[in-house]
Design a protein that fits this description.
Elements: E1 4-5, H1 8-28, E2 34-40, H2 44-60, E3 63-69, H3 75-87, E4 93-96, H4 106-112, H5 124-132, H6 140-151, E5 160-164, H7 171-178, E6 188-192, H8 199-203, E7 208-211, E8 229-232, E9 236-239, E10 247-250, H9 255-258, E11 264-265, H10 272-294
C-alpha cells in the first residue's frame, strides 16, 4: 500500500474560489477586505512568508499593506503602529510576523491587536473563544489542518487523533478545534510531546497522526499505525549538497518510509503550507463581513 497524497495546493485553490465570490459581494457593497502585515527585522523565512501573503492578497484582490521595520525598531513605536492600524477602517486584519527581535515582548504586541482584527487567532480573547467553541478567528494552520482532513475525505469525526507537539501555534489549538462538539470535529484527541513516555506506543494509536514538533523526519514508519492518515506540519531545512540551493525542505515525518504504511499523507512542501495562507485570507474576508454586519 502506498499512501494517497493529500494535496494542499489543490484544496487551497478550492477555498480561494469560494472566497472570490465573497470578496466580489463585499466589493459590490463598497468594502474591500484589507490586511496589514508587519515584519520587524530580516529573518529570511519570515521574509518569504510575508511575500507569499502579499502575493495571495494581490491574487484575490484584497487590499494589503506590508510594513517592513528594522530589527532595532522600538517596542513602544510598534505598539503605537498597532494602535493606528486598529483604528484604520481600511484594515480588517492585522498580522505581526513572528518571531520578533529579542527586545520586543511578543505577548504584549499580540495582545495589543484588536481581537476583531486578529486574523492570526493568537489574541487571548480569540484563544478563549476557540476553546469554548464560540470562535472569532481560528488560528490559520490548525484550521487549515481541519479543512485538509474534511475536504480530502478524512473527517476527524469519531476518530482518534494523536497530535505530536504542544505549541501555542499548532499543537494546542489543533487539539482544541478537533475535540469540539461540532461537525468536522468530534474527535478523541491525545496530545503528546518530548516528555511523553514511550512516545511510539502513543503515536501508533492514532487513526490520524498530526506531526508538529519541528524536528526533521522524526516520525518513523514504526511510530505510525497501519492505514493511518498522516498530517505533516513541519518545515525544516536540512543540508543537501546535491541541491542547487545547498539544502532541501523536509517535514517532521520520514515521508518515504511512512507513505508505505499510511493510507493518506501530506507532502512537504505542498501540504499544510498553502492552507495556512488561504485560511489567513479567509479570516480577513470574515473580518470584513463582520465589519459590514456591524454597520
Amino acid at each position: 500500500m502506498v499512501a494517497r497524497l493529500i494535496d494542499g495546493n489543490e484544496i487551497a485553490a478550492q477555498i480561494r474560489e469560494e472566497l472570490k465570490a465573497k470578496i466580489a459581494d463585499l466589493k459590490s457593497k463598497g468594502v474591500t477586505p484589507g490586511l496589514a502585515v508587519i515584519l520587524v527585522g530580516e529573518d529570511p523565512a519570515s521574509q518569504v512568508y510575508v511575500r507569499m501573503k502579499g502575493k495571495a492578497c494581490e491574487e484575490l484582490g484584497l487590499y494589503s499593506e506590508t510594513i517592513r521595520l528594522p530589527a532595532n525598531y522600538p517596542e513602544e513605536a510598534l505598539l503605537k503602529l498597532i494602535d493606528d492600524l486598529n483604528a484604520n477602517p481600511k484594515i480588517h486584519g492585522i498580522l505581526v510576523q513572528l518571531p520578533l527581535p529579542d527586545h520586543i515582548n511578543e505577548t504584549k504586541v499580540l495582545n495589543r491587536i484588536d481581537p476583531e482584527k486578529d486574523v492570526d487567532g493568537f489574541h487571548p480573547v480569540n484563544v478563549g473563544r476557540m476553546l469554548i467553541g464560540d470562535p472569532g478567528f481560528l488560528p490559520c494552520t490548525p484550521h487549515g489542518i481541519q479543512e485538509l482532513l474534511i475536504r480530502s475525505g478524512n473527517s476527524p469525526e469519531g476518530k482518534h487523533v494523536v497530535v505530536v507537539g504542544r505549541s501555542n501555534i499548532v499543537g494546542k489549538p489543533v487539539a482544541a478545534i478537533l475535540m469540539q462538539k461540532k461537525k468536522g470535529a468530534n474527535a478523541t484527541v491525545t496530545v503528546c510531546h518530548s516528555k511523553t513516555k514511550d512516545l511510539p506506543s502513543v503515536t501508533r494509536m492514532g487513526d490520524i497522526l498530526i506531526a508538529a514538533m519541528g524536528v526533521p523526519e522524526f516520525i518513523k514508519a514504526d511510530m505510525v499505525k497501519e492505514g493511518a492518515v498522516v498530517i505533516d506540519v513541519g518545515v525544516n531545512r536540512v543540508d543537501d549538497p546535491s541541491s542547487k540551493r545547498g539544502y532541501k525542505l523536509v517535514g517532521d515525518v520520514d515521508f518515504e518510509a511512512v507513505k508505505q504504511k499510511a493510507s493518506a499523507i501530506t507532502p512537504v512542501p505542498g501540504g499544510v503550507g498553502p492552507m495556512t495562507i488561504v485560511m489567513l485570507m479567509k479570516n480577513t474576508v470574515l473580518s470584513a463581513e463582520k465589519t459590514l454586519a456591524r454597520k
